[in-house]
Every structure is written in structure tokens, then in C-alpha cells.
Amino acid sequence: MAEASSTPSDERVKQISPLRRALIRPELGAMVGTLAVFAFFILFAFDSGMFNSQGIMNWATVSAQFMIIAVGACLLMIAGEFDLSVGSMIGFAGMMIAIFGVTIGIPMWAAILITFFLCISIGALNGFIVIRTGLPSFIVTLAFLFILRGFTIFLPQMVERKTIIGGIREAAEGDWLAPIFGGKIFGSLFIWLGDAGLITVFERGTRAGQPVVDGIPMLIVWALVLVVFGHVLLTRTKFGNWIFASGGDAEAARNSGVPVTRVKMYMFMFTAFCATVFAICQVMEFGSAGADRGLLKEFEAIIAVVIGGALLTGGYGSVIGAALGAVIFGVVQQGLFFAGVESSLFRVFLGVILLGAVILNTYIRRMITGER
Amino acid sequence: MNTRSTHAPIIEMRNIEKHFGAVIALAGVSLEVFPGECHCLLGDNGAGKSTFIKTMSGVHKPTGGEIIFDGAPMNFDTPRDAMEAGIATVHQHLAMIPLMSVSRNFFMGNEPVKKIAGINFFDHDHANDVTMSEMRRMGINLRGPDQAVGTLSGGERQTVAIARAVFFGAKVLILDEPTSALGVRQTANVLATIDKVRKQGVAVVFITHNVRHALAVGDRFTVLNRGQTLGTAQRGQITPDELQDMMAGGQEMASLEGSLGGTV
Fold first, then answer.
1. Do β-strands A184-185 and B23-33 pair in parallel, antiparallel, or remain unpaired?
2. For residue A152, what are the domain limits?
3. What is the pTM of this model?
4. CATH number where A306 lies
5. What is the reported pLDDT for A213?
6. Alpha-carbon distance B92 to A252, whole Å?
7. Residue of chain B minimizing CA distance to A78
8. How close A257 gets to chain B, by Cα (Å)?
9. Domains of chain B, start order
């Protein structure tokens, strides 16, 4: 068997063109889209401040937010399931941080850990119900979309008689865990860049001479770490193969000894984890938790994933693609603002690009499987 | 490749009975399979073929009778036990995922790992090399190990499934109607694969209701009819017509065939 592997390629096998080979990479569409979006805004909005340090930080932060939830949604979708409760989970997790950390007043690190535990448990419950009942995850998680949102509105009214709880930044003061979500890194690098005149600095006021952008928010760090983690997990590990297999054909995967139930369960928990990370970064930044946070985020995550080339039916997709989908999302949303375009047009753009992506993905799937 | 009386059978099914409530699906079926033999199990729809092989592969527990595997009585609780003992089943509905590459499919559930910095990574290089060489051995030339299974023909998919089972140490390979949905050329490919596998010393149980396919590769033939075995015949001791008659239960078939000019 060893000697055979050294034989060169067979002349009877038709070579496929490099274009076709490139097309069946799931993230290709998103790569082209990203380039197109950047080209567009560099051409039409370069002078608007979109590409100076604050501008970049602005759309990078928004993109990073999308990225965090897209990674979870991407892996879950490849495993063959959806989670529509992501947006409500974001609101719920933020509210839990506020209730535990501010209203009840336990140390912030404990509030963060309890929130993670709670939310991941709810994710596991989602998965458990989907797997046990065999119902579509669409319906089960739609139920949780309402259940969690309902609690997110009800609980703060019960304990504080209002729907926004503030004071989180003060409560997180001096905590050891909170800066992992709300802090910034590379501050000295930005001071150096400011001193060197490479980025804008404040010209007057108490912070004169300091750079306007004073570090990379942990939100962006989380986004990059999650993307790298998700990508390596999916493409370079045994578990990644199981994710593809579970979404491609759960029955066939089971027959081959893949623990499909466990895979799907972990993916629901991971999605909940990503939503919680998003929520904690957000409440640390805003200093408050609101009952309406995370509204519609589940759809935005799914759109980013689909733009990234994943199939809604599971079994195919790419974390890198989803991350690029998130970048397209963030750049366009903020770019339209910089370019002075009416922001409601962003929704039109979303719908159009979603439709385009789904049609392209279906075509690519036919190409891979040879269906006609 | 026919008489193997000097060897011990790898698996022996003695007087297997299986009842589902009031229905007697198997009423005492016996069969033995030797290593390196292709044993054809023939029978019409409803004859009990599927129930029988499911008993063999641990899906069903027999109501009566015993299974001797490798010289020792065996009692498989789950298909997994049977699989681990070396009994692999390739089903009509394949355990293949069209969107995944051949190499990812080949190692699905048995992924090779390589440790880098204490973390187990999927060893793609190894998986790709093995997949390419195993496929070439079976006569399938892949464009590359990353070619999706969806682009393979039905016969090639069967061959990948068979090659996978053999690679992961199957001693008994049960093929459940692998040729029933295939065209002529693809069938020939699968039959050639069966022959290759048999020559490696694997015991093949080939289920079919097509006498031609059975006679093309079979060493011995067992016919099931209404949950009973009508005996096992050696290659060369039986004609296609006799086999056909046994499967269909004789009488009616003879008159039917007469009206069709003996072409069935």
C-alpha cells in the first residue's frame, strides 16, 4: 500500500480548473465580498474619517461584535442546528451580570462566572430538548427567544422597578476578571503611535496629547481568539470532523461511530458561551444592562454565517468565512454612516446580500455534490 | 477459493431463530462463513435476509440459536460490540456524507491524530495518504483526497465504504444489497471490489436477490425462503436456474418464467 501512494496523478481523471477548485472553498464569496466592500468605501468615503484611527476602531469594534456571535452560530449551523435565542441570550446574560453584580452586589468575578454557568446551562437545555424531541431547533430556540426576552424584561422590573440597570462599571472597579471583557490592551503602543504623530491625539482638554484611540478593546481580542479557536477546531481536529459529519448526515455519522448527540450539545453550549462573551463585553463597555439589548442579533449572526458560505442545511461552512461575513456587516453598517447615507438603507443592503449569498451557496453545493 | 474444510469458520450461525411478537421471521437458520470466502445470501423480499444479517451484526438479539465467532460463542449487545469484534456492515443507505471529502469520510469516527504541543490534531497528511493509496488499491482514481464524496458514483461510494470497513480491521464484511441500485458498469466495479477484499482473507457475506451478481463472485450460496434456509450450495454445484427457483419457491416461478421466455 505504501508504494502505490508514490504514483503520480492518473491521466484518466479529469483535472478541474483552478477557478472551480477555488469556488468550492466556502469562504470565497465572503473574501470577494470583503474586498468589494473595502474597495467601495475607500473609493467613496475615504475622506470621511472612516480610515483614520478612530474610524477604523469604530467599524472594527462593530465587526468584532458580529464576529463573536457568528463563530458560535457558524459551528452550530455546520453541526446542523440553529439558535434563534442568541439575541435574547445576550440581553439575558447582560441583565444577569447587572442583577448579580449591582443589585445583589456580589463581586463582579462571581457574577461573571455565575452568568456563564447559567447561560451555558440554558444553551445545553436548548440542545437537550432539540435532541430528545427531534423537533427542529428553529422552533425550540424560537421558544427560548421569547422565554429569555420575557425574563430579561421582567426580572429588572421586579428587583429595581426599571428596565435598565446601571452602575456596572463602578461595580467592576478593581475586579480581576472584569478587565478580561471590558479592558483594553496595547495602551502604551498607542501612546507611542500618538507621540510619533502616526495617529490622532487629543488637542486640548484634560487628555491633551493622549491618543484618541488608547488601546485595542478586549472585545476585538475575544473576537480574534474565538475565530482562530473555531477555525482550528473545525478544520484541524477530530471534533471538527464530527461537527461536519453531524450536520452532513446525522444518521450516517452515528453509523460510523460519531457521538452526534454530544457534538450538537457542545455546539449549543458554545453558541451560548459566545453570546455571553458578547453580553459581558457590552455591559462592561456601556456600564449598564438594558432589557432590549441583543435584539435581532440572532438573525445578524445567521446572516454573517450564510454570507460566509455556510449551508443552512448544515455540514458545510467556514469560520473564516463567517468572520469575513461579520466584517462585511460591520464595515457596511458603519461605512454607510460615515458616507452619510440614510441608515435604513443598511437593511436593504442586508436583505440583498443575504439573498445573493444563499443563491451562490446553493449553486456551490450543487457543484460539490455533483447534483444537477 | 471454494472448499475450505481445513480452516475453521470465522463466524458460525447455528439454528438462529428470531420472533417479532407473533411473527416468526427466522425459523432456525444456520450458516458458516470462512475467511477469504464470499458467501452469498440469497432470497426474495421478505425472506428474512435483513433480519438474519441484523442478528449477525448485533442489531437484533436472536430468540434462539447461537453465534460462534472466531471459535467462541458470542453475544453481541449492540452493533458497536459486533463492530469492535470485526463484523462490519455496509448498508444500502451508506454511511457516507456527500458534502465531506473522501478522506474525511474514510476516517469519520476513526480520525487519526497527531500531537502538537500537547493538543491532538487531525492528522490530515496521514489520512490523505492512506485514503489515496487505499482507493488506488481498489481501482478508484481520485482527483485528490479532498474530492467530495458527492462527486463519486454510487458504485465508487460503495467501494469507499467497503475499503473503509476493511482498512479498519473487518474480519467479516456484510454487504447488504450493494448492487441493487447500481448500473451495469458500477455493479461490475463493486463485484471486482468484493473479489479483491476476499483475496485479502476477509470473509464476505454478500446479500442480494440477483442471481447473476451472486454467481459472479460467490464461493457458496445460501438461499433463504420464508425464514428458513433451503441449504447451502458450493460454486459449480448449482445452476442459475436452480438458484432462481429456490429463491422464488419453485412452482409459480416456473410458470411465470415460461410466459416470459425464461429471461428473468
1. unpaired
2. 27-40+49-369
3. 0.85
4. 1.10.3470
5. 79
6. 11
7. B99
8. 5
9. 11-51+64-99+148-260 (3.40.50.300)
